[in-house]
Structures are given as C-alpha cells and as structure tokens.
Amino acid sequence: MKSGATIFLRAVLVLIGIAALAMLLVQPHFEGRNANATAFEVYFEDPFLAYLYVASVPFFVGLYHAFKVLSFAGEDRQISPSAVRSVRITKHCAIALIVFVAGAEAWILSIDDDDRAGGVMMGVFIAFAAIVVATAMSVLERTLQNAVDMKSENDLTV
Prior knowledge:
Layout: H1 3-30, H2 39-44, H3 47-74, H4 81-110, H5 117-157
Helix pairs in contact: 1-3, 3-4, 4-5
C-alpha cells in the first residue's frame, strides 16, 4: 500500500479518536439533565455515563489496532500473523461495541422518558457502523489468514 494513503488513513483514525475523546469529556456537561450539575454530579452520580465510559474502552482498543494494521500495511508487513491478530482484535472490539450499544439501547428504552428518540437513533448509527467494521474485519481476517497460510507453505517448500 502506498505510504501516502496509509499516512492519510492513520491521520483519519487519530482525528476520530480525538473527536470521540472530546465528545466523551465535553458532551455530558451540555446534556439536558446535567446542564446545571456540578462536575462531581456529572461524572460520579450518573451510572449511564459510567456505562458509556466502560463501553468506550473497546472502541479505543479497536482504533489502536486498526492503526497498527495500517502501520503494518505501510511497512509492507500486512501478510503477517501479527497483522491477522490485530485485525481479529479489531473485529472483536467492534462486536463488543455492538453488545454495549444493545445494552445502552435496552437501558434507554427501559426508562420512562419522552425524549429517548435521539439516544436511540445515535445508538442505531453507532451499531450500524460497528456492524460494518466487524463484517469488514471478518472478511479481511479470513483473507489475511489465507495469505499467511499460503506464505508459510511456500516458505516450507523452498
């Protein structure tokens, strides 16, 4: 893969990570029920926010491993067991994110509130993106694993 393309894609991943981190830290202060709350009340008395922070861990781990996959591609080492491992971890992180989003959706729908449409729709968008990533990583994992297997067979016969 060309170096310019991998650098661009790595920069996009870094920007996505920075934007997600900024949203996690800033958005709770502007949320309707937290608009007049203190920082302690926002961060330590909201169990849903704690759930979202725990759910963000697989997101950031997946971003890190996607960055590693792009680094392998930039170094022409994309056909290696470590690249397959990073792709597999990214796939598992996307699946974990889908599970966390489903839990958050169940939580939102269980609360008797008139204003849940926005939260539900955001969850649907995030789940859809995670499904796309999990599917793409599954296909890429299978392809890379086949390439690694063929490469190791060729190395054994030579």
